Amino acid sequence: MIRSMREQLIKALIAHAHGDIQKHVANVEVYLNNPVGIGEHSNIVEAIEQELDMIAKYQDQIDIINKYFKK
What we know:
Largest sheet: none
Shape: elongated
Low-confidence stretches: none
Helix content: over 70%
Strand content: under 5%
Radius of gyration: 16 Å
Number of domains: 1
Order of helices and strands: HH
Structural class: mainly alpha
Number of strands: 0
């Protein structure tokens, strides 16, 4: 069965958002498990907050797609 362009685009958007979430989760894990090794970030808490903001951004995108665009 051939998927519609709409379904393909929605799937791609969600996959992209999930990939970016995993990237930012990995960054948070690095900060949490080895904060001493991150020399360029003197404020670890602020760096983690920035990563969490990015996770929230992409999770919001997924939530919006699921709520308004999936049938």
